[in-house]
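Internal tracking record. Fields below are filled automatically when a chain is submitted to the structure queue. Please do not edit lines marked as system-generated. If the sequence contains nonstandard residues, flag them in the REMARKS field before resubmitting.
Queue: standard
Priority: normal
Entity type: single polypeptide chain
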Amino acid sequence: MEDKVAKALVREVLQGQTPCFAELVKGFESPVYNLALRMTGSPADAADLSQETFVRAWLHLDKYDLERKFFTWLYTLSLNLIRNHLAKTGRAVLSGQPHPDRELVEEARNANPAQSLAAKQDGLKVQDMLQRLPLEQREALLLRFFQDVSFKDMAVILGVTTSAAKMRVRRGLETMRRMGDE
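SYSTEM-GENERATED OUTPUT FOLLOWS
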C-alpha cells in the first residue's frame, strides 16, 4: 500500500471513520504476517503476532507521527513485538524444522516436479540458515530481501544508522555464506 494512501486512511480513522482501519489491515496484513513467520518459524506464532501488531496499532494510532512513513511505524511495532516474543520464549536463534515459505510452495506447484523439488529444497535451506542467524542479522536480511525495505527505512525500523543497517545485512550475508560452506 502506498504511503500517502496509508496516511489518508490513518487520518480518516483518527477522525472517527473506524471502518477505514480494516483497509490498513488488508493492505499490510500479508507483509506483517510474513515478517513474523520468517522471524519465528511458526505459522501459529506469526498469526498471533500479526494480530497483536494490528491490535497495538489500533490502540496507539493516535501516537503515530503523520510525518513518518506508516509502513516503518507499523514494522517497528511489529518487530518489537516479535523480539519480545522471541526473548520471552527463548527462541532468538531457532533450530529444527524450518517452515515452508508460502510463495515458494505456490511457485513449486506451478513448476515441473524436478524444479519443484529443487526450489523447495533451496527455500528450506535458506530458511533454515536464516533461523540460525543472530537476531540482528536475521532482521536485517528479512527486511532487505524478503520485504524489500530500503536501507534508510530499515535504519528507522531497527533504530540504527543507515550504515549500521548496511553492516548488519553484510554480516548476515557473510554468515550465511559460511553456513553454506559447512
